[in-house]
Write a structure and sequence with these properties.
- It is a single chain.
- Helices cover 28% and strands 23% of the residues.
- By secondary structure, it is of the alpha+beta class.
- Strand 11 and strand 12 form a beta hairpin.
- Helix 1 runs parallel beside helix 12 and helix 5 crosses helix 7.
- The longest helix is centred in the C-terminal third of the chain and has 19 residues.
- The radius of gyration is 23 Å and the shape is globular.
- The two termini are 40 Å apart.
Length: 453
C-alpha cells in the first residue's frame, strides 16, 4: 500500500518559546517541522513594545542565570543575559536594605548575609539613610534564614519534588522560619519570582524558585523579552515558521487551518497557552492564572534613583507595586541615552487609576518625587502566569497519545525554565515515538504561507 503524502513530519501549533525550542530540537534531529502561529509575530506573551527608543516588556518575568534550559536549549547560544545586582533591595519601615547577597567567604549560594548600607537617600527625601542591620529579626533569625537558603541551593531537584506538598507559606512556617522573616523577605521575594502575592503556590514550586535565586543571579534578556523567541525563530531552517495562520482543529495526523485548509503530518505538538490548547482539545485542564500589570516610566533625572541595578521589593506591601527596578541600569539597550527606564510590576487585580497609585508608591520606594516622570505604557495581562497551587504536577504528561503532544509553561513550572523544559520533554517524546534519527520521508511542500520575519 502506498504511504499517503505528508507535508511535514511534525506540525507545531504555537510559536512561543516552548513551540520554537521544540521545533529546533526536532529539526536538528532531521525531522521536517512546520510551526504555525496565529499572531503576526512570534513569542506569545514574551513580547516587547518599542516606544520612542524604549523597549518595554509586556509581562517582564524575571529570569535566573541558574536556569539550566537557558544553557541547554539549541538556538539560544547568542542570548545575552543582563544580571541585577546580587540579592535584592527590601524597602521596610521607610528604609532600604540589601538582602540575599552571598555570605562572606565567596559563597555563591545566595545565603542571606548581614546587610551592607547603601548611600544615603537624596536630600529632602522621605526615605531615611539605609539601615545597616537586617530588616527583620535578630541574629538567630538571620542564621536560620541563611541556613534555609544554603540548604535550598544545595538540595537536588528530585529530592525537592519528593517532599510533602503544601502551600508555600505553610511549608516555610513548618520549617521553623519565623513569620516576620517570611513576611519581610521570603514573601516579597517569592511573589516577584512566582507572580503570586499570597504565596498559595505549591511549596515544591516555591522551593525550585528559591533554589534558582540562591544558586544564580536574577537577570533579564538584553534587548527585551522578545529576544528569546526571535533568536529561536531565526535559528530554524528558512520556511519553518509561518505567522498569521490560525489552527481550527487538530488530530494525530493533521492540523486544519482557517487560511490553508488541512496540513497533513505524522504528529502534532500543541505549544499554545493553556486556554488555546483546551480550545483545540476540549478536556485539557485550564489552570487559574495570576494577572500581572507592568507600568513603565521614564525620567531624565537618574541621579535621584539611588538603587543602581538592583531589584527593589516592598516588604511592607504599602502600595500596589510588588517590585520595581531602574531597568535601564540593568540593560542600557532598553532606553535612549540620557533617559532612565523604571519598570514596575503590580500583581493581582490592579487598583483604579493604576498609574496614579503606582506613582505615589514609587515616590516612597525610591525616595524621590515622581511628579515629572513620563508614563510610557501600562500593560495589563489578565492571564499572565498559570497558577501552581497544590497539588501541582510539575511534570504533566506531554504525550497525550501517539501522534498528539502538548507543551508549555502550563505543563511544567510557570516560568521560562518550565516552558523550555516542557518543550524538551515533548520533543524527546516525539522523536522516541517516531523512531526518528533523521527525516522520515521526503515532505511535500506546504501551501504558500506567510513566513515569520
Amino acid at each position: 500500500m502506498l504511504e499517503p503524502a505528508y507535508q511535514a513530519d511534525v506540525v507545531v501549533v504555537g510559536a512561543g518559546i516552548a513551540g520554537l525550542s521544540a521545533a529546533h530540537r526536532l529539526t536538528s534531529a532531521g525531522v521536517t517541522t512546520a510551526v504555525l502561529e496565529a499572531a503576526p509575530y512570534v513569542g506569545g506573551r514574551m513580547s516587547t513594545e518599542k516606544v520612542d527608543g524604549f523597549r518595554l516588556d509586556r509581562i517582564g518575568q524575571l529570569l535566573s542565570t541558574s536556569y539550566p534550559e537557558l544553557r541547554l536549549t539549541p538556538g539560544l547560544d547568542a542570548l545575552v543575559l543582563r544580571s541585577f545586582a546580587p540579592g535584592v533591595l527590601l524597602h521596610h519601615d521607610g528604609r532600604r536594605h540589601r538582602a540575599g547577597t552571598p555570605a562572606p567567604g565567596g559563597s555563591a549560594r545566595g545565603a542571606l548575609h548581614a546587610v551592607r548600607a547603601l548611600a544615603s537617600a537624596p536630600r529632602g527625601s522621605a526615605v531615611s539613610p539605609v539601615r545597616t542591620g537586617p530588616p527583620v529579626g535578630g541574629a538567630v533569625d538571620q542564621a536560620r534564614l541563611r541556613a534555609l537558603l544554603s540548604r535550598t541551593a544545595g538540595t537536588p531537584v528530585e529530592r525537592m519534588l519528593a517532599r510533602p506538598e503544601l502551600p508555600a507559606t505553610q511549608a516555610l512556617a513548618a520549617r521553623g522560619v519565623p513569620a516576620r522573616t517570611i513576611d519581610a523577605f521570603l514573601r516579597p521575594l517569592l511573589a516577584a519570582l512566582l507572580c503570586d502575592p499570597e504565596l498559595a503556590t505549591s511549596s515544591r514550586c516555591a522551593d525550585l524558585a528559591l533554589r534558582a535565586f540562591a544558586s544564580g543571579r536574577l537577570c533579564v534578556p538584553e534587548g527585551g523579552a522578545e529576544v528569546l523567541p526571535e533568536l529561536l525563530a531565526r535559528a530554524l531552517p528558512p520556511g519553518t515558521v509561518h505567522t498569521g495562520v490560525r489552527a481550527t482543529s487538530v488530530s494525530t495526523t493533521s492540523v486544519t487551518t482557517t487560511e490553508h485548509g488541512e496540513i497533513r503530518c505524522r504528529a502534532v505538538l500543541l505549544a499554545t497557552d493553556a486556554r488555546a490548547a483546551a480550545g483545540l482539545l476540549p478536556g485539557l485542564r485550564v489552570p487559574d492564572f495570576h494577572p500581572v500589570t507592568v507600568v513603565h516610566h521614564t525620567t531624565d533625572e537618574p541621579a535621584d534613583l539611588s538603587t543602581g541595578a538592583s531589584l527593589l521589593l516592598d516588604a511592607d506591601r504599602g502600595g500596589p507595586v510588588a517590585h520595581t527596578a531602574v531597568v535601564s541600569n540593568v540593560d542600557p539597550s532598553r532606553a535612549p541615552a540620557g533617559r532612565a527606564l523604571v519598570s514596575s510590576t503590580v500583581l493581582g487585580t490592579p487598583p483604579d487609576e493604576v498609574d496614579t497609585a503606582v506613582r505615589m508608591h514609587l515616590a516612597r520606594l525610591y525616595g524621590t518625587s515622581t511628579h515629572r516622570w513620563e508614563t510610557l505604557a501600562v500593560h495589563h495581562t489578565a492571564e499572565a502566569v498559570p497558577a501552581m497551587r497544590p497539588p501541582h504536577d510539575l511534570r504533566r504528561p506531554v504525550r497525550l497519545l501517539a501522534g498528539l503532544y502538548v507543551c508549555g509553561d502550563h505543563r511544567d513550572t510557570s516560568t521560562v525554565q518550565g516552558a523550555l523544559h516542557s518543550a524538551h520533554r515533548a520533543a524527546s517524546a516525539i522523536l522516541a515515538d517516531l523512531g526518528a534519527a533523521g527525516s522520515l520521508h521526503r515532505a511535500d511542500p506546504l501551501p504558500a504561507m506567510r513566513r515569520a520575519a
